[in-house]
Write a structure and sequence with these properties.
The chain has three helices and no strands.
Length: 69
């Protein structure tokens, strides 16, 4: 498997790792024209978004715990 093909699979897996979101399928032909650096950049952006969501969820949970007490 080529590096680009693996990056495209990684992008699809990241998109589908969010809870409560329906499955996303990425047509590899749409991403095939991008170079590896661009695909890596997309992965970085998806990871940043996931981290932001996790931090927001954690902040909400901490606030919920404080309000509960």
């Amino acid at each position: 498997m080529s590096t680009k093909a693996q990056l495209i699979i990684d992008i699809q897996e990241l998109l589908n790792s969010h809870e409560n979101i329906s499955t996303t399928t990425v047509n590899p032909d749409l991403l095939e024209f991008m170079d590896e650096q661009t695909l890596i950049s997309i992965i970085g952006s998806l990871l940043d978004q996931k981290e932001t969501h996790l931090e927001a969820d954690n902040e909400w949970l901490e606030q919920f715990k404080k309000d509960k007490n």
